[in-house]
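Let's sit down with a protein and look at its sequence and fold side by side. We need material for that, and I hope you will provide a protein of your own picking. Once you have written the record down, we can walk along the chain together.

***
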Amino acid sequence: MVLAVSHLSKAYGGVHAVRDVSFSVAAGEMVAIIGPNGAGKTTCFNMLNGQLVPDSGEIRLGDASLAGLPPHRIWRLGVGRTFQVTATFGSMSVRENVQTALLSHHRANHSMWGHARELFVKEAEGLLERVGMREQADRPCAVLAYGDLKRVELAIALANRPLLLLMDEPTAGMAPEERGALMALAAGLARSDDLAVLFTEHDMNVVFGFASRVIVMHLGEVIAAGAPDQVRADARVREVYLGDT
């Protein structure tokens, strides 16, 4: 098991954003967290990534405890993340964006050996090849289509060779025909690299098409978890979220 979350809780005053949440993600597995707005999905993600400190509970990545660690320490331990809104350096090339992540991964931010753009070129291009962006390596990110930016962001997230990849609304803002391609790419990476993938998503076609397991949250609590067909048939899940989907 790559990620093990036990009895995780976070409250703001009297409002319990996340209450006693437990789940796990294994190597090579694609697990989706779904639920209506305000369910606690983003708060949960932000605790896993170190942007929020849990009030209680445990987060373990293998043998390492992540709860309360800052994001850069969690990244170093092997957690990558993509965000709902992509964040790349628009004036820099696709390759340079990935090189920037590799400079940090290799702790070469202050290297005295040549210019930064000359470092880790082949490694950056190898990552871009994996996400289908090698031919656009020299283009500035500012001119890319949104779907291509999502692929660049994925290459950046892979730069630290993560054990766990967190994908927050990975297909948000993408055209319908692009969504399946991106998630198929993520699923292929999960299988080939034994990468544990945890993602949030509002597109139920994406969720039920690619998740091996689905966790459903409502008002900060897990109300159902299991195989996609099992979750889709759950009466309470249909009542609070899926309806007749």
User: Anything to note?
Assistant: The mean pLDDT is 92. The first helix runs from residue 41 to 48.
